[in-house]
Amino acid sequence: MKHRVDSQEGKQIYSHRMSVVEPVFANIGTNKGLIRFSLPGKDKVQSQWQLYCMVHNIEKLTYYGQLSH
Predict the structure, then answer these.
(1) pLDDT attached to residue 41
(2) Distance (Å, rounded) from C-alpha 19 to C-alpha 22?
(3) Residue 35: partners with Cβ closer than 8 Å, 6 or more residues away
(4) What secondary structure does DSSP assign to 57-69, as a single string?
(5) What is the mean pLDDT of residues 53-61?
């Protein structure tokens, strides 16, 4: 794995990870405190995850909305 990540192609692919999805998971896990789901069952977990994602997206809209004014 180290060889793959250290290759030129691996560095290019890995550099995109920070701009794509990892900050979202870090924000939800660290800043929102979602370490583990509190409800049992797949449907309830799905609902809880969607709620956290919705909050994350609303905060983004609020923040970027202020930048455009």
Answers:
(1) 92
(2) 7
(3) 29
(4) HHHHHHHHHHHT-
(5) 85
Phi/psi-derived region of residue 41, left when phi > 0, alpha when psi is between -120 and 50, beta in every other case: left
DSSP codes of every residue in the chain: -HHHHHSHHHHHHHHTHHHHTHHHHHIIIIIS--SS--S-SHHHHHHHHHHHHHHHHHHHHHHHHHHT-
Q: Two tokens at 14?
A: 């890995």
Distances (CA, A) of 9 to 3, 31, 53: 11, 32, 31
Measure the CA–CA gap between 18 and 25, rounded to whole angstroms: 11
Six token digits for residue 51:
């709620």
Q: What is the pLDDT of residues 13-50, one digit of tens each?
A: 777 665 666 777 777 877 777 777 778 899 998 998 89
Largest CA distance in the chain: 46
- pLDDT, residue 17, reads 64
